[in-house]
């Protein structure tokens, strides 16, 4: 059987295990089946259809009216003709510069990647910190947890409207900045640079409560004995954190970082309500672009093609993290 | 784990001045206050008149309290029906999702089988594809199965999401393999291990999944918007959006409805958060 | 016991007879619409048609307006058989046509010798490749709303129907009173309310790839913003301020807006939630070389679904709705029908709450209405580009010249393909 199976603990006695392994595989499939069948029918098949769709032109008629266009959609979103011409004219980097400053996909990619790189670590750090603090018997922990989870349950409209108010030209945030000597005399969402930071701010603030809950749950699974052992070994709190808590939280961090990356790559609501991609294209993100193509321009093939770019990036990141995770968990 | 711990035997934390603690409280209170602002704004807006909501400069306390906004929303749209539908969907989805996810997650976390990694990547991959990209094929498929305009449609859409499987898999990885091995030696079947060991040890994880699934389903808008058409099938978020559309300037009513729709999810959260109290899951576990 | 049985039998028989009778004459027409429960004209149209055509029932399928295009795209792709779809914007209609969902109305129109003259040419916007794929029943043009009380207080004369933009600017500046928080005018965040007026000359369009004609209007707005005569764009968009509440609050003297706002305004003044008391309407100002009373507008219409099983009934309804009878019903509830005549204008100005002065009534009949953005295969993409540059100009992240250069370049590239 496969190499994978050979690594399984049960399969160490390779030669006799054929039957048992088949049985194990069957048992595994029986665990998967209830979820996988529903998942395959309602999610996986449509996703595969949309992969196919990215190579077609489709106006939304019958599925049979899809027309195969090969890589045209990809050529169109990457604007290969124009970028290629610029590369020939200005050299490779000139062409890249054109792609990232003028082509919709390039701008959306640049914005989305920037947003992700900033938001993911910030959210993770805040979430872990909050979970550690609120996992202790801090007075009022219950109330604090509920309050900090609140941004996730509250209506997005209310949240974004509120933040827009706070980030207005004469709003409280600018006034606080003014009091410490920073004079920013403009609404954040009306400034090409600050609009992005406004979205980062709101996202981190919203994510941190959410992932705090996940970390809180994960902390329950850290065996106390490990801390006791560490204390006996004379580790201080900080050392305990690095040598016990963080390694124990690794599966959760894997989950949180992947979900955060995907969430950041798919950010839509916050941007749609706060800036709608503006000013100009300063906060135009991939999904804003996808939405525009699918439901304003009805170019479903193009929208699918952009989604595939997103899918490839996320899969690459996931595979890297995945292999890192299995390396660690083997140790 | 002990190499780092062995180096430095200082243990000062017992005798620190409470300055750290005070600072901690200041930070927590500031954060909470910051977080509560939108909530306060929602409540304040829900008690104002339409034109006062965006009046500048903003008044946090309305001049007169318009409690009638809260009765108005019940008469303007059939909120009760919306609540009922959403509750049915959310409860069913949460139940199916939690059960099937923890089942599948056990296979991913603790069993070895052919195609495990590929299948798992499939799950994660679908999370990465924006719904807008596969919405139309999915709709055509569902419609051909006769699931259009039925609550069942939203249930099956939400109940088998990859998210739950992923979340539970990560929690199960925390549980030491030795525990399963020991149980296998004791003659427990895999189903038995799942039921007797995994489930009891993952109450906090299950509580998390229940909260997230419930809140996620409760707050879902696009799914019900596309799939549910008849008035008697609509959900709370569709109803809320109807408010926003129909009374596009009536933010006071929108906010009143938002506040009302928040109540059930808050109850679920508060009821389940006791599972996050330290140490509940660890008792009896000798890693 | 027998008596009871007899009674039950009798009731059952009666019920079955009634059932058959109802089934014979009964026809149901399904119409997909947005905000069907709260849009007064939809209710009025349904009631009027049902009263005139006993046995026919109209059933609306309600979709939220913001997601109308999305949901309808899904419904149509899923093989929905509703008889009629309301048409919100032209690019979406063109897409439905391309995907094969729109019934060609040419034969129906010819067969019924249906009179198109009342549309004064507007129906051409729904015509593709010689096929009339929909008919309009509402036509909203941009018009100037003003608050009479603020004009009186400032001692400024009411706007006239032949005002130029320069005169408008003077009035806006004269009406502004910073101490009392009064703004001379108000622009909503849309591109259309800001600069779409350039198409009123009948020459420029938003799809021609050349946008230097917008510069005049951008300059005008930014000047007014600088003078404090209107709220600034960043402020309005950050606050998500809705135009109706803004004007309703009573501290805005003038506001260009679509005609549909008349119905909202009247309703909210009557239920007492608005501060505005006395208001009036004036034609949109024009540039000096453009005929007074020219403006731009948009259409709302109906399309017959190719998959409908009742196309003849559907056509009967469409012909009624988009003709004079339907127009009067639409006008009675404060909307501006697409099919217009003197008779329809009388109905419009006679509704309760409408300003009584002659100027407001005269403003109801513009001399020329250009389409906001003509329907072409690229209209949607062009709007997206213009919208993006619009936000950059209005937040002053780039200058007007840069913005227009970007528009020319980006749309030019699209058209050049």
Number of strands of chain B: 0
* Major β-sheet profile of chain B: none
Strand content of chain B: under 5%
Q: How many beta-strand elements of chain C?
A: 11
CATH class of the largest domain in chain C: Alpha Beta
If you average the pLDDT of chain B, what whole number results? 79
Distance between the termini of chain B: 13 Å
Helix content of chain C: 40-55%
Number of helices of chain C: 18
What is the count of distinct domains of chain B? Answer: 2
Helix segment count of chain B? 14
For the residues shown, what is the average pLDDT of chain C? 87
SSE string of chain B: HHHHHHHHHHHHHH
Structural key phrases:
heterotrimer, B: 287 residues, mainly alpha, MetI-like fold, 14 helices, globular, disordered C terminus, C: 417 residues, alpha/beta, D-Maltodextrin-Binding Protein, domain 2, nine-stranded mixed beta sheet, 11 strands, 45% helix, 16% strand
Descriptive report:
The complex is a heterotrimer of chains A (331), B (287) and C (417). Chain A is an all-alpha fold. Chain A has 15 helices and 2 strands. Chain A has a two-stranded antiparallel ribbon. Chain B is globular and about 70 Å long. In chain B, helix 8 (162-174) runs antiparallel to helix 11 (203-219). Chain B has helices spanning 2-7, 19-46, 68-76, 79-110, 116-128, 131-144, 151-159, 162-174, 177-185, 190-201, 203-219, 222-227, 236-246, 251-272. Chain C is an alpha/beta fold and 417 residues long. Chain C folds into 2 domains: 2-138 and 298-349, Periplasmic binding protein-like II (D-Maltodextrin-Binding Protein, domain 2); 141-296 and 359-416, D-Maltodextrin-Binding Protein, domain 2. Chain C has 18 helices and 11 strands. Chain C is globular. The chains are: A mainly alpha (331), B mainly alpha (287), C alpha/beta (417). At the A-B interface, helix 1, helix 2, helix 6, helix 7 and helix 9 of A face helix 1, helix 2, helix 4, helix 5 and helix 6 of B.
Describe this structure in a few short sentences:
The complex is a heterotrimer of chains A (331), B (287) and C (417). Chain B is mostly helical.
């Amino acid at each position: 059987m496969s190499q994978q199976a050979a690594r399984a603990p049960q399969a160490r006695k390779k030669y006799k295990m054929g039957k048992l392994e088949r049985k194990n595989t069957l048992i595994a499939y029986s665990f998967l089946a209830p979820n996988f069948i529903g998942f395959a029918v309602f999610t996986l098949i449509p996703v595969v259809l949309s992969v196919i769709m990215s190579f077609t032109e489709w106006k939304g008629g019958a599925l049979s009216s899809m027309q195969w266009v090969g890589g045209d959609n990809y050529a169109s979103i990457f604007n290969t003709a124009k970028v290629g011409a610029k590369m020939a004219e200005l050299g490779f980097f000139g062409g890249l510069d054109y792609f990232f400053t003028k082509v919709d996909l390039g701008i959306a990619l640049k914005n989305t990647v920037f947003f992700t790189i900033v938001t993911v670590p910030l959210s993770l750090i805040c979430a872990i910190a909050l979970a550690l603090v609120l996992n202790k018997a801090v007075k009022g922990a219950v109330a604090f947890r509920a309050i900090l989870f609140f941004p996730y349950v509250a209506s997005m409209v209310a949240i974004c409207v509120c933040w827009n108010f706070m980030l207005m030209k004469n709003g409280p945030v600018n006034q606080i900045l003014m009091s410490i000597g920073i004079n920013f005399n403009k609404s954040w969402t009306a400034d090409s640079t600050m609009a992005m930071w406004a979205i980062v701010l709101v996202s981190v603030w919203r994510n941190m409560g959410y992932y705090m809950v996940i970390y809180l749950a994960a902390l329950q699974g850290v065996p106390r004995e490990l801390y006791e052992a560490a204390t006996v070994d004379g580790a201080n709190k900080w050392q305990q954190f690095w040598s016990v808590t963080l390694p124990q939280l690794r599966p959760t961090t894997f989950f949180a970082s992947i979900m955060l990356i995907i969430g950041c790559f798919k950010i839509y609501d916050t941007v749609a309500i706060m800036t709608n991609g503006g000013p100009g294209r300063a906060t135009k993100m991939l999904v804003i672009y996808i939405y525009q193509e699918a439901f304003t321009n009805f170019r479903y093939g193009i929208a699918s093609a952009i989604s595939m770019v997103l899918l490839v990036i996320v899969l690459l990141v996931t595979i890297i993290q995945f292999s890192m995770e299995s390396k660690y968990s083997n140790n | 784990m002990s190499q780092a711990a062995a180096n430095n035997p200082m243990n000062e934390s017992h005798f620190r001045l409470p300055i750290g603690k005070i600072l901690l409280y200041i930070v927590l209170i500031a954060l909470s206050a910051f977080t509560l602002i939108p909530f306060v704004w929602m409540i304040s807006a829900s008690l104002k008149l339409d034109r006062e909501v965006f009046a500048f400069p903003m008044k946090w306390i309305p001049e007169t309290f318009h409690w009638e906004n809260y009765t108005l929303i019940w008469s303007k749209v059939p909120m009760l029906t919306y609540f009922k539908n959403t509750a049915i969907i959310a409860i069913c989805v949460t139940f199916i999702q939690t059960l099937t996810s923890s089942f599948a997650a056990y296979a991913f976390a603790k069993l070895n089988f052919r195609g495990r990694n590929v299948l798992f990547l499939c799950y994660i991959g679908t999370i990465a594809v924006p719904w807008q990209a596969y919405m139309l094929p999915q709709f055509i498929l569902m419609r051909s199965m006769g699931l259009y305009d039925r609550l069942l449609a939203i249930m099956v859409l939400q109940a088998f999401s990859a998210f739950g499987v992923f979340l539970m898999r990560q929690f199960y990885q925390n549980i030491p393999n030795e525990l399963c091995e020991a149980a296998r030696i004791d003659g427990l079947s895999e189903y038995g291990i799942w039921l007797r060991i995994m489930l009891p040890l993952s109450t906090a994880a299950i509580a998390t999944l229940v909260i997230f699934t419930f809140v996620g389903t409760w707050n879902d808008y696009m799914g019900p918007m596309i799939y549910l058409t008849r008035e008697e099938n609509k959900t709370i978020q569709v109803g809320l959006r109807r408010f926003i559309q129909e009374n596009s300037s009536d933010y006071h009513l929108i906010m009143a409805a938002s506040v009302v729709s928040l109540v059930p999810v808050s109850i679920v959260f508060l009821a389940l958060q006791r599972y996050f109290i330290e140490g509940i899951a660890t008792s009896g576990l000798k890693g | 016991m027998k008596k009871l049985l007899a009674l039950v039998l009798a009731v059952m028989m009666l019920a079955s007879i009634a059932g058959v009778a109802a089934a014979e004459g009964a026809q149901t027409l399904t119409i997909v619409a947005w905000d069907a429960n709260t849009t007064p004209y939809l209710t009025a149209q349904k009631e009027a048609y049902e009263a005139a055509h006993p046995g026919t029932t109209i059933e609306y399928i309600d979709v939220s307006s913001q997601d109308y295009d999305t949901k309808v795209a899904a419904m149509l792709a899923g093989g929905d058989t509703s008889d009629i779809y309301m048409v919100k914007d032209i690019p979406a209609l063109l897409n439905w046509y391309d995907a094969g969902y729109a019934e060609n109305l040419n034969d129906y129109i010819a067969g019924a010798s249906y009179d198109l003259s009342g549309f004064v040419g507007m129906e051409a916007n729904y015509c593709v490749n010689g096929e009339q794929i929909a008919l309009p029943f509402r036509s909203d043009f941009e018009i100037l709303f003003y608050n009479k009380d603020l004009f009186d207080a400032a001692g400024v004369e009411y706007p006239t129907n032949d005002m130029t933009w320069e005169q408008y600017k003077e009035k806006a500046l004269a009406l502004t009173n910073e101490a009392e928080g009064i703004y001379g005018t108000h622009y909503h965040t849309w591109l259309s309310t800001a600069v779409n007026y350039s198409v009123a000359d009948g020459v420029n369009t938003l799809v021609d790839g050349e946008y230097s004609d917008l510069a005049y209007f951008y300059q005008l707005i930014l000047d007014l913003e600088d003078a404090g005569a209107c709220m600034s764009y960043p402020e309005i968009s950050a606050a998500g301020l809705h135009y109706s509440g803004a004007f309703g609050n009573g501290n805005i003297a003038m506001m260009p807006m679509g005609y549909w706002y008349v119905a909202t305004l009247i309703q909210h003044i009557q239920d007492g939630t608005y501060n505005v008391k006395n208001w009036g309407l004036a034609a949109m100002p024009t540039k000096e070389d453009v005929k007074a009373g020219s403006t731009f507008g948009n259409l709302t219409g109906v399309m017959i679904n190719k998959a409908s099983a009742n196309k003849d009934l559907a056509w009967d309804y469409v012909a009624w709705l988009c003709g004079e009878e339907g127009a009067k019903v639409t006008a009675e509830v404060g909307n501006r029908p697409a099919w217009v005549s003197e008779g329809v204008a009388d109905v419009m100005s006679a509704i309760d709450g409408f300003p009584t002065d002659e100027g407001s009534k005269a403003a109801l009949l513009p001399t020329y209405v250009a389409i906001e953005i003509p329907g072409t295969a690229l209209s949607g993409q062009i709007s997206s580009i213009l919208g993006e540059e619009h936000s950059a100009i209005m937040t002053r992240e780039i200058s007007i010249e840069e913005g227009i250069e970007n528009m020319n370049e980006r749309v030019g590239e699209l058209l050049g393909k």
